[in-house]
Design brief:
The chain has 155 residues and is an all-alpha fold. The chain has ten helices and no strands. The radius of gyration is 19 Å and the shape is elongated.
Length: 155
């Protein structure tokens, strides 16, 4: 819920800088990260991480901001618990067989951090699909594994 913390802080305390960043990103066909660095000298992500640490937010909150900023999967149990939701897209795409290259790399990082084989992850996801399918039948909802995976994988 706080992934946009840096952007919110800039919008609240420096609205003129926020709108310059937004304009620069839109018309120069740049991304927000580069535009913020050009206008502020720092990214929204770095601002969010800085204030989350300064305000002594819980480890899981600060770490979730780092996950978004550095686009990485944690190796410790605490990091894994924090980072697993960030792999939901990849897990859904994997379950439905619709992974792209970037998703494959992130999923490989997840599997390595869990110290497991991809077939084991496949078995876990098959069980999850079986439970989901059974629930859907009880609710009289028709779903297909691939369709559900494609919807979930696109966010």
């Amino acid at each position: 819920m706080i992934h946009n913390l840096g952007q919110i802080i800039v919008l609240y305390y420096h609205p003129e800088a926020y709108f310059r960043i937004k304009t620069l990103a839109r018309y120069k066909q740049s991304n927000k990260r580069r535009a913020a660095r050009k206008v502020l000298g720092v990214t929204y992500d770095a601002i969010g991480i800085h204030y989350a640490e300064k305000w002594r937010l819980p480890f899981t909150h600060v770490e979730s901001l780092r996950v978004c900023y550095f686009n990485r999967i944690g190796k410790t149990r605490e990091n894994f618990v924090v980072n697993l939701p960030f792999c939901a897209t990849e897990l859904c795409a994997f379950a439905g067989g619709v992974l792209d290259g970037k998703q494959t790399l992130r999923l490989r990082e997840l599997i390595n951090s869990l110290n497991m084989f991809s077939r084991d992850l496949g078995n876990i996801l098959d069980k999850a699909w079986s439970d989901t399918n059974q629930f859907a039948k009880q609710q009289k909802v028709k779903i297909k594994k691939r369709s559900l995976s494609e919807i979930a994988a696109t966010g």
